[in-house]
Amino acid sequence: MSAGELVVEYPVEIVHLLVSSVHRYEGRPADGPLPVPPGEIESRSEVEVREGLGIVGDRYFGRPAHKRAAVTVMAAESLDAVQALLGVAHPFDLGATRRNITLRGVDVDALAGVEFSLDSGSGPVLFRGHRPANPCAWMNVTLAPGAHKALRGRGGVRSEPLSTGVLSLGPAVLRVADALGGVEPLRS
User: Fold this and answer.
1) Which intervals of the chain form a coiled coil (predicted)?
2) Where do the domains of the chain lie?
3) How far apart are CA 156 and CA 107, in angstroms?
4) What's the rounded Cα separation, in Å, for the pair 53 and 45?
5) Measured between alpha carbons, how far is 146 from 111 in angstroms, rounded to an integer?
6) For residue range 117-173, what is the model confidence (pLDDT) as tens digits?
7) Burial classification of residue 100, based on how many CB atoms lie within 10 Å of its CB (0-12 exposed, 13-18 middle, 19 or more buried)
8) Could you tell me which of 31, 79, 146, 187 has the fewest CB atoms within 10 Å of its CB?
């Protein structure tokens, strides 16, 4: 998005940020995830995103094979819907999805193939949404039985960072060049 382009703004909330130095879902899901490395805190209140590299400290940071998928973004509403569909009484652990950024307030799955920015107050960070972040069988273990199938089509999007910046938990603005279907933009 160039500075001169008209953009549509959506009020969102960044409800979870995850940085994981290791891939914890290895082997068979029935064996459970690997433990968090000693001293590592995966859930963060703030993350640093670097253009073309990803999130500083994350397992996919700077890996050429993951350049177009370095940052995963998901909608909290997708998890709410799956929780209700499966009849789970407790809220899901947002970190269990292994998505880097969880937003509330927009259809994240509509961002596949779209340039978008997120601004949580420190300036916009530009991304290019690429392919869907399809759920895996681990979701049946870490969220609830049936979650893998229930999350199909709403697992989020794999994104490439096109600028450098900082994102923090809390209110934010998501900007896109064109309106996303079914979502009301901010009114000026």
Assistant:
1) none
2) 8-21+43-176
3) 9
4) 20
5) 25
6) 999 999 999 999 999 988 888 788 888 899 889 889 899 999 999 999 999 999 999
7) buried
8) 187
Q: Which residue has the tokens 């997120």?
A: 118
- Counting beta carbons within 10 angstroms of the beta carbon of residue 77, is it exposed (0 to 12), middle (13 to 18) or buried (19 or more)? middle
Taking the C-alpha atoms of residue 48 and residue 3, their distance in angstroms, rounded to an integer, is: 22
What's 18's DSSP letter? Answer: E
Q: Letter for the amino acid at 39?
A: G
* Spatial CB neighbours of 143, under 8 Å, sequence gap ≥ 6: 79, 82, 88, 92, 93, 96, 97
Give the strand order in the sheet containing 54-55.
Answer: 54-55, 46-50, 165-168
Question: pTM to 2 decimals?
Answer: 0.89
User: Judging by DSSP bridges, how do beta strands 101-104 and 157-161 pair with one another?
Assistant: unpaired
Q: Are 79 and 108 in contact (CB under 8 A)?
A: no
CA proximity to 129, closest of 158, 90, 155: 158
Q: Quick one: fold of 8-21+43-176?
A: M1 Pyruvate Kinase; Domain 3 (2.40.33)
Residues in the chain, overall count:
188
